[in-house]
Amino acid sequence: MVSRRTVQGRPQEPADRWQAAWPIMVMCRDARGNAVVQEARCPHKGANLGAGRISRNALECPYHGFRFGADGDCEAVPCLGSEARIPKGLRIRNYPVREENDLVWMWWGEERESYPGITAPWEAARHTGVHATGSWQRPLNYTRYIESMLEFYHTPFVHSRVVDSAAPTTCSTARRGGFGGTGGSRYVETAKVVDHKVETEGTTLRSSFRLVREEDEDDPAKGEPFTIVFTFPGMVHVVNARFDFTMWITPVDEDHTQILFRWYEAAWLRPFLPSRLLRGIAPGLGTVLQRMGPEPQDMRVIADMHPKVSRRGAYKFVAADEMNARYLTIRHRLLHGDPPPEEHAPAQAGPGRQAGRAARTHVRTT
Ligand code: FES
Ligand SMILES: [Fe+2]
């Protein structure tokens, strides 16, 4: 999947790392503006069609000029002339493509009669406003990346240096979070998870909780409310007073993960800024800062974790990790097709227990 704007009229090749992991593909738009994704190896002698051009609404090979239509069939063989009988097998694979949610979705598995629908959770699908989308790769396994997005209680330990952690987005919305001018620094002090709920609906997990500073433990209402939605195989949507973003997390290979990151405008800004152009500045900035600020801070810790590929049974989870535990359980079921031997709902810290108690409540995963 790529951002809609990424696919332009001219042929384009996916990034290098995709080429190493996948069959080489080329993306472009036909004369009607429809996105087209095709195999990029010319069946004639193997030239890279990504280096070709669009000619007469077909993809023209840069070597001998054979042209391939949007359905993959070869339409012209210039060296045989315009009357040439073109062999049926002279074609390139065409990948099914759909455009939804301002994204281009491609099916690169086995060909089928029909393809599954694209279902984005409503938290992501409902956004009609301005957003910015960025894309990049990180050198770690996708399971580790996904798990890093399923909780935020690492914030005071990983992102405590406010200036380095994309504080502008934090501080700019601090008033909304009720933290006044000190919003950024107060936010990075929140660690305790309260009012934690996790729901499972098919392959979607929804988690809501508040993060509370140590000094506010007696008044959890002062905490920062979060909602995290995860939908298999790799979509995460996070909403709170200062964030509203979606990430699509895709494995490239065992050691690399592709991130598609979308930051939405703050709805409360709309009445003050009618210009969509101006409203696009903050999401654009948020996307760049995410890539340069907090995420490299996360990478410094998670790229070095063991085991490299996350799995059930590898950890001693605590109550606040319920979403992570459910992620691993469902992933196991989807990969292996069998129900897990037992469900591993983490034990909850009951009312009145001491603050440290939850941290000692381990959740076994087998
Ligand atoms: S290699 Fe593509 S036309 Fe010859
Ligand atoms: Fe983080």
Automatic annotation (TrEMBL):
GO MF entries: 2 iron, 2 sulfur cluster binding; metal ion binding; monooxygenase activity; oxidoreductase activity, acting on paired donors, with incorporation or reduction of molecular oxygen
Domain Rieske: 5-106
Keywords: 2Fe-2S, Iron, Iron-sulfur, Metal-binding, Oxidoreductase
Membrane-spanning residues: none
InterPro entries membership: Cholesterol_7-desaturase (IPR050584), Rieske_2Fe-2S (IPR017941), Rieske_2Fe-2S_sf (IPR036922)
Keyword Metal-binding in record: yes
Biased composition (Low complexity): 346-358
Basic and acidic residues: bias regions: 335-345
Oxidoreductase as UniProt keyword: yes
Positions of the UniProt region annotated as Disordered: 335-366
PROSITE patterns: RIESKE (PS51296)
PANTHER family cross-referenced by the UniProt entry: BLR4922 PROTEIN, IRON-SULFUR DOMAIN CONTAINING PROTEIN
Record protein name field: Putative oxygenase
Gene: rphG4
